[in-house]
Amino acid sequence: MKHIYSILIVLFFISCTNDFEEINTNSNAPVNVQPSLLLRQVIYDYGEQMSYEGFTAGNLLGQYSTALDFNLFDRHNLKSPQLGGNPWPIFYQNLRDNEIILNLSQENTAFTVYEGPARIMKAYMAAGLTDLFGDVPYSEAFKGDIATVTPVYDTQESIYMDAGGILDNLDQGIAAMENYSGTISLKGDILFNGDLAGWIRFANSLKIKYLMRISTKVDVTAQLQAIVSEGNFINENSENAIFNFTDGEPNNFRLARLRIGDFNNYVLSETMDEILTGLNDPRIGRLYRSFGNSTDAGFNGLLNGIDASAGVSLADYSLLGTIFRENTGLLDANFMTSMETHFLLAEAAQKGFITADTEMLYNTGVTQAFAYWQVELPVDYLNTEGALANGNPLENIITQKWIANTINGYEGWVEYRRTGFPQLKTISASLNDNLIPVRMPYPAEEEALNSINYAAAASKTDGNSINVNVWWDE
């Protein structure tokens, strides 16, 4: 009887394995990934996640807002992210998916139209990554299925300057779109609705941005002047690289989906309060609310990095504006804008990198920034408190860019590190010896999963210190 049972078992498995491949194949699953679906996914996922990341963690580092609780990050213990502060996986997941798009564009002529946007998105995300962390896995990254899952860390200089790096990908992306002669249109594009001219303007604005970022290390004057002379960059708010959030789920701003207690954890910072109040700037009413105990609809900010155990009354400080919770349909995921482009060009003109009218560029940036945030520009603003000549012109340019860039990732903090403006404050209860951090730390999982290469990178940053400058800031 036992022998008969064994034979039946063997026959059963033989009969099953004959059809195993057919049974375990999903006939409804696509054999190949469509780049249009991946492009939409990369743009949306990166924009949605980094808007939240930037507004929670980035805005604490840039001192736009202050966290009342769960605030180790606000006190500059950056190795303990809370409610945000871990952008590493966002970068690498989307860079990996974007690499698939880039590979498909080069392997299949039907997908050639995707090469330019894929190269520009790669440059954009790689710059965001290295500007936060410094040296990072790049040349060997995004290839875990065919190469290695433990990539080496490339230097920031090579990521910016080498073939296949940030500036090279922007140039190659522009060339790919200018030379594209196919009839297949770009699908899945939620930034420019398939308009390649929009992507070229986006790429040129990014070139302005990244050339300014490395301008203390490299002579960028000729390249900047060439872009300015050609004039093909984002020049109007209608040309911005953005996509809109909605008022309701699932595509509203993620901060609106937090519990009310988590949302109320963020209040106006003392730094932002003093700057906007000093400028008599009406944008404070768009970005923040009057504090509960105010008797005159006033605003009040709190110094960053408080000791949460000290206790504060929420009613004494201004919460974030309704645009970030109740009315997020008025809000964008912001990749690159005309206002930022004009502020960068104003800085370049002020420093003598380009021949242009600094004041005109500055005034255009301010005007577009008010329009972007849907606030009426006071008639005398650019002749009084907001005038370029009212104090240090360079500080005014960077400060106005800082104000305008609320929600744009970690930009305010990155540009403070590069320029020293605006003048951020020593925080209340620092866990970093009263120093403002100048880089993000590599996450703990890197030490566990890529230990040898992590150790080499950590040794160059004084043990993964947040106080070691990145290459362009050395």
UniProtKB/TrEMBL annotation:
Pfam families: SusD-like_2. This is Starch-binding associating with outer membrane. It comes from Maribacter arcticus. The lineage of its organism: Bacteria, Pseudomonadati, Bacteroidota, Flavobacteriia, Flavobacteriales.
